[in-house]
TrEMBL record:
It comes from the Bacteria. InterPro entries: AAA+_ATPase, AAA_22, ExeA_AAA_ATPase_DNA-bind, P-loop_NTPase, XrtA-assoc_ATPase-like. One of its GO terms (molecular function) is ATP hydrolysis activity. Residues 42-236 form the AAA+ ATPase domain. Keywords: Coiled coil. Residues 296-344 form a coiled coil. This is DUF2075 domain-containing protein. Transmembrane segments: none annotated. SUPFAM superfamilies: P-loop containing nucleoside triphosphate hydrolases.
Length: 345
């Protein structure tokens, strides 16, 4: 892709969470500190919430990657809408606990035996539950029941919950009082501000060994912030496409014009629709009246919009063709250099 053109050792804005690229804003650092505090306490629940794409999973991966205590046995769940028994089955599977029988009592007994064995070995279990907002209230309650497993007045398992903002609503319900009393710390992640967006991008570029200090100007950082609203996942998607665009157009510096052009191409991906607006039910339900001059003009406008969309699509295909052509030429040059070196040897 664009790595060799810009001198990167790897793609700096991949979507998959990578602890090496973890960038701690004040909010992220606070959340990570709470998680570490929870580890040190060895009991209770830690809850981390935040909008989509603000880095909750990255924090969890960073924590797991940096656990230095060999006495902590960790497992991570990425949940869907699990019933209580399904959650227990998944917990057993992630901790690789053999289960004899197939009813809830058998699963609970197997989990307890496993936790007691860990305790006798001087170890304890840590369960990270990602996308916890998908759990029904009764399944969150099942997690609380798991925390009742104790020996020598010490909890045998500890749970961290990471989820979108809906998780706060689940926990705030009147019948979740017992669960709330076991939360020892909580944090809420927010999108990055302008300065954090600049630091975030530069940090990732540095991790990929970028040596181009002028790749983005201050005005470029400001515009990227405006286009992505400071959401890390959107920044990754957008800047990755910007670098590909810069490679195709042979840009040494990512310009304001390049950012605006890529933002226009990616309008659907960044906003969810071409114009960021949804039709109301009333607008959707109106019939088409062909003999109305107003509707004829509307049809013309729609056709013009379709024409623009098709033209944009064609331009993207042309750019991709150019990219493939450039990539083939680059590979041919590399092959020719390799052949030349072999011939010299």
């Amino acid at each position: 892709m664009y790595e060799s053109y810009y001198g990167f050792t790897e793609r700096p804005f991949q979507l998959s969470p990578d602890p090496r690229f973890f960038f701690a804003t004040s909010h992220h650092q606070r959340a990570l500190s709470y998680l570490q505090y929870g580890l040190d306490q060895g009991e209770g629940f830690i809850v981390i919430t935040g909008p989509i794409g603000t880095g909750k999973t990255t924090i969890a991966r960073n924590l797991l990657a940096n656990i230095a205590d060999e006495n902590i046995v960790a497992a991570q769940l990425v949940t869907t809408k699990l019933a209580p028994e399904e959650l227990l089955e998944l917990v057993a599977a992630e901790f690789k606990i053999p289960v004899e029988g197939n009813n809830k009592a058998d699963i609970l007994q197997s989990i307890e035996n496993f936790l007691v064995t860990l305790h006798n070995q001087g170890k304890r279990a840590l369960l990270l539950v990602d996308e916890a907002q998908n759990l029904p209230a009764e399944t969150v309650e099942e997690l609380r029941m798991l925390s009742n497993f104790q020996l020598d007045n010490k909890p045998l398992i500890q749970s961290f919950l990471l989820g979108q903002e809906e998780l706060k609503d689940i926990i705030s319900a009147p019948d979740m009082e017992q669960f709330r009393q076991r939360i020892i710390a909580s944090a809420h992640l927010k999108p990055l501000n302008l300065e954090e967006v600049k630091d975030y991008i530069n940090h990732r570029l540095s991790q990929a060994n970028c040596n181009k200090e002028t790749l983005f100007s201050d005005d470029a950082f400001k515009l990227i912030f405006e286009k992505t609203l400071g959401v890390p996942r959107k920044i990754n998607i957008f800047v990755d496409r910007l670098l590909l665009f810069g490679f195709l157009e042979e840009l040494e510096t990512i310009t304001i014009n390049a950012i605006n052009e890529v933002a226009e191409e990616m309008a659907v991906e960044l906003t969810g629709s071409l114009n960021g607006q949804n039709l109301t039910n009333e607008q959707k339900a109106q019939p088409l009246v062909v003999n109305s001059s107003e509707n004829v003009e509307n049809i013309k406008n729609v056709l013009r919009e379709v024409e623009e969309i098709l033209e944009t699509s064609i331009q993207q295909k042309v750019k991709m063709t150019r990219y493939i052509d450039k990539l083939l030429k680059q590979k041919n040059r590399e092959y020719a250099e390799l052949q030349s070196k072999e011939a010299e040897n």
